[in-house]
Amino acid sequence: MAPATPHPALRDPAWSGRLFWALTGAxxxxxxxxxxxxxxxxxxxxxxxxxxxxxIAEFFPPKGGREFLALIAYExxxxxxxxxxxxxxxLLLAIPLTLAATAVLSVSALPGRMNALPFVxxxxxxxxxxxxxxxxxxxxxxxxxxxxxxxxxxxxxxxALTYSGxxxxxxxxxxxxxxxxxxxxxxxxxxxxxxxxxxxxxPTNAAELTSYTIYRWECAIRSSAVLGFVGAGGLxxxxxxxxxxxxxxxxxxxxxxxxxxxGVADWTSAKLRQVLA
Amino acid sequence: MLDLSSNPGLRxxxxxxxxxxxxxxxxxxxxxxxxxxxxxxxxxxxxxxxSGAGKTTLLQAIACALRPAAGRLLLDGEDPWSLPVAxxxxxxxxxxLAPQTPPLPPRQRTVTSLLAARLPRQSLWxxxxxxxxPLGIDEAxxxxxxxxxxxxxxxxxxxxxxxxxxxxxxxxxxxAPAGLWLIDEPLSALxxxxxxxxxxxxxxxxxxxxxxxxxxxxxxxxxxxxxxxIIGLREGKLxxxxxxxxxxxxxxxxxxxxxxxxxxxxxxxxxxxxPPPPMIVCR
Amino acid sequence: MSATAPxxxxxxxxxxxxxxxxxxxxxxxxxxxxxxxxxxxxFFSLNLQWGTFLSLDALRKMGRFAAELLSPSTDAEFxxxxxxxxxxxxxxxxxxxxxxxxxGLMLALPASRSHAGDQAxxxxxxxxxxxxxxxxxxxxxxxxxxxxxxxxxxxxxxxxxxxxxxxxxxxxxxxxENTPQGPAYAxxxxxxxxxxxxxxxxLPAVLPQVLxxxxxxxxxxxxAAAVLGVVGAGGLxxxxxxxxGLFQMSETSSVLIAMLLLVVLVDLxxxxxxxxxxx
Lengths: 277, 283, 279
Prior knowledge:
The structure holds 3 protein chains of 3 kinds. Chain B is globular, with a radius of gyration of 19 Å. Chain B is an alpha/beta fold.
């Protein structure tokens, strides 16, 4: 049906753009599939299928037994303990770094722009925080395992370093985006920086800081389980041991315990955040 | 061009219909209490009344969006709630409900939101194709042109003003495969000139196609001027059901008693059927 | 107090007890106490080897590591292999995130209640599946998938996809449940089937969040992909574990720098993409 007057605008103007991006996306997809050796059919090859099915069949029933369960309970506690110690140390590191990095406590910035030296110092601390947070904790754990040997110390140190970076960065952002009216007033009237911190910064932002810290503690529990893969103790180490022995029943128990542990940590963290913040 | 003969108007009969607001508790008072009325195929009726009268609930009940608490609804002589689910879904495609707030997803383009009104009669494959490249751009353009919005065909919905969005919501009726148009407050965001144009377009299009039109309006003057039949609702009951020529100022005053500020033609703030705030009168 | 004022032991002010120092019902106090106890118990039960850490031997080792780490290897052939491994890691993270976004969206539909009257029978079981997927960390998935998929980046991609599906699926389901219902209601009332209601009314509203969460997750996944190789899932992680196992610290340092560069690159791409798509 031809309209009475020709409408040149009755073609979808977004079509050519969409087509271009769709083709670009498809073009990018091909090298990605090749680079990752993405061959889903090998999952169903008879040899691999047989070994996977046999392994999965061993999952049911998961391994019980008083001795094994006691071991798993102990390792779960160690996982939580590693995370808690790591977070405690991370806090010890992060708090002074935050204080050094945040512009909220800057005395030189009170009348206007910050002076050069304090600015450079603050940027340097920020870069330190970025480096601390960008190195994956697994890498720290690998290094520390070679220095102090296998065991929880390596895990605690790895978590402490990485999480101090994460905590420091977010703390600094929270402090800067929060209400700093009270703090500035205190600094203007001549109180010291630490005084301004305790009387101004902390009361204003305590809720948000606490909430984030508890959320990070929950993440630390997951991290600490993973760090066990490289020998830092806890459930992860037990999982690798059982996997290497192809013991499906043990792996099944450990995975179940892990899912439950994460669920409990999740719930605890939500409840704590509700009450404290 | 749409085949006008394919959407014959539906006939409506309500027999002692009672219905509750969808979000109300089961022991809450009904929004509609024992309503009986009949609308012939192709008729155009305006429903007026103060806030809380149950106008929106009436439209939702006729659109089969909520089950009647009591009484019966007949569409073209059959009770939709006694039909098997598949036939009820098919029947729903013949009804078009335009809610007070235009149902347009903010980041979608106008053309897609408009053509979504045709989904009931489109196959799955056509619907999916239409997402990638809209099918029926001509019809959409024509519908928008009738509401003076042709240049907004390709714009995103969130770039339109409130009045423009409302007109797009009305334009959806023109592309819907429906024989019954249930329009809730079509003019609330439009200035008088645009409102006159919009209501003329709506009633004109309904007349052309023989579609039954039921519209709730707060602009009583527009209702009386443009619609041949006026139904007045008050507190869920039928106050009057008269040809427009027989509606007197007296009828209106009695209908809007204690809500006189709504009679001026402007919709009250917060245009959903909530009970109005109590008025304190100093004597 | 003047002699004509009424004799009142509290001096004319209403008599009230000072607030108790430790309010037994103060929940927050109990919680703080609990946290302190937990922390102390953790430190004591772990038997941490501070001695070993701060011993002369350890410090010497760390000093040597640090020195070697500060001189990264720039051997051309090694850098070539590094580039390949970097591309592999980037591809793993991108493909894994993409697969997870698609799978997450498909699972988010049964996992959400589309409107108030929807029975949503599949909601609880789907949410359970999503929770299990996200509770198991990527590394654990990778270790498990090595059995089925063999060594190499395929296992890593699948591991990332599985874990991220759990994360994104839950986020998408919550986004779907929080969308305004108007457009979907209008289409449902017209008798449009649920799938098309989703595509035409809900998806356009939820798409910005879907893209934003997916891109944000990509930033997380590049860090995860980089270390997945430690269990044998290819990419930079495999090179890292290899060279660190041989104590070749300068090569390790190059790998670490490559990891950091990749992370910065993906963070930048994700930020730009989110800005562009959010307009």
